[in-house]
From TrEMBL:
Protein name: SDR family NAD(P)-dependent oxidoreductase
Gene3D superfamilies: NAD(P)-binding Rossmann-like Domain
Taxonomic source organism: Lactococcus lactis subsp. lactis bv. diacetylactis
GO molecular function, one term: oxidoreductase activity
InterPro entries the UniProt entry points to: NAD(P)-bd_dom_sf, SDR_fam
Length: 261
């Protein structure tokens, strides 16, 4: 069964994974609405993709969320899918106090975690009324701390637990809502990972991520661990303490190499 005929809101739809899915979903015959903060970039994407609708919106700005909800209610009352894709990732040296104001340290929490929760809750009634679907984008790095991204890891673990709880509540309270967690591995065809070489180990092509996700949607999976995210899932379950140490040593030396004598 092809994923078609839906009306899909994608937060963070102007770049990387969100933009890749926006293009694919549109190609498959879905109505696609994308959001992002940067208006200039959004307009550029809308000019290049005439089937898309766009709306400037910051998932971390609680005051602007009602405007997005009103826009959707007025123009797309048939909305039945949201994909929470907006996200940022920071490598942080927790000991560099000068760069680490609380504002900087909590930005990923506001965008990745609270943003996902706020957007989902704001559209829950509409989605349930339309037999809807939530796709929350977490990360392979939700499974264990990698050392270099201390706040990112916890935001994505939070997205995982929120998604599980929402899915279980939907079943318990007999709501017509499906909740899917999409767990991507490293995808370098993105702004978020533009600093990483495409030949990095375990990198997944964006087109492969999309194909694997569409197969997962067709097979009715609740959680789609794409590519290397399957191994990261296992690493977080079996010998997780040991794997945390190994992964952290590797990632910390990649991101914060020590000066050699
Ligand atoms: N790339 C990877 O290796 C990888 C792996 C696992 C999971 N993920 C997850 O996949 C999702 C997409 O990431 P990506 O790699 O495609 O990154 P990307 O290329 O940097 O795209 C991020 C998108 O999110 C938007 N965005 C950022 N902050 C926002 C905010 N506060 N409100 C609304 N939109 C916002 C950006 O536009 P503006 O800046 O204009 O707002 C952009 O459209 C993220 O949740 C990320 O954590 C990525």
């Amino acid at each position: 069964m092809t994923f078609t005929g839906h009306t899909i809101l994608i937060t963070g739809g102007t770049s990387g994974i969100g933009l890749g899915f926006a293009k694919k979903f549109s190609e498959l015959g879905n109505k696609v609405i994308i959001t992002a903060r940067n208006e200039k970039r959004l307009n550029q994407i809308l000019n290049e993709n005439l089937t898309f609708t766009g709306f400037v919106s910051d998932v971390a700005d609680k005051d602007s969320l009602p405007q997005l909800v009103n826009f959707i209610k007025e123009n797309f009352p048939q909305l039945d899918v949201i994909m929470n894709c907006a996200g940022i990732m920071r490598a942080i040296n927790l000991f560099e106090q000068a760069d680490n104001s609380l504002k900087v340290l909590t930005e990923e929490i506001h965008i990745n975690l609270l943003g996902t929760i706020a957007v989902t809750q704001a559209f829950l009634k509409i989605l349930v009324a339309n037999n809807g679907l939530v796709i929350n984008v977490s990360s392979g790095l939700s499974n264990l701390a990698d050392g270099a991204h201390p706040i990112y890891n916890l935001t994505k673990a939070g997205v995982h637990f929120y998604s599980d709880a929402l899915r279980e509540q939907a079943k318990y309270f007999e709501k017509t809502l499906k909740v899917i967690e999409l767990v991507p591995p490293l995808v370098t065809e993105t702004n978020l990972e533009s600093h990483t070489n495409t030949d990095a180990p375990n990198n997944m092509a964006l087109s492969d991520l999309i194909s694997e996700t569409l197969a997962g949607l067709e097979n009715g999976l609740d959680r789609i661990d794409a590519g290397f995210a399957k191994q990261l899932h296992q690493m977080g379950k079996v010998n997780s303490d040991e794997n945390t140490k190994l992964l952290s040593q590797q990632m910390l030396s990649n991101y914060f190499p020590k000066m050699k004598d």
